[in-house]
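Still learning folds. Look over my entry:

…
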Amino acid sequence: MKEITAIIRRDKLPETKKALEDLGFPSLSIQSVDGRGKQRGMVCNNDLDPDLPESFCTPAKLKPTPATYALVHALPTVALFVPKRMLTMVVPDDLVTKIVKSIISVNKTGKTGDGKIFVSPIENAIRVRTSETGGEAIA
């Protein structure tokens, strides 16, 4: 068994859920998260207005997107985070590649901020209601 954790754009959640359902994997956990990558929370104008050409995205055109946390807690320097969705699911080993490819196909825009996918081994799973373990617990 493997755990797949995907951090994706918020607007791609419905498409991603549909793609996973079409593969036969409707079960997943979804969390709202804030984070940042190499750009440290800066969003290019292209990401806000998709009609702008890619060449318009230069360091001078980057705009900060302050996190709600930073504003609510009055931090001295606004910490920049981008709101995302984090999906988590546990799947059989032989289906990991198929599921990861599906998530990528739905979420890949070619722009900064498309997200990340992490795959981790799971030692065991136990369904609380029935005490089923292993693969039976995730089916």
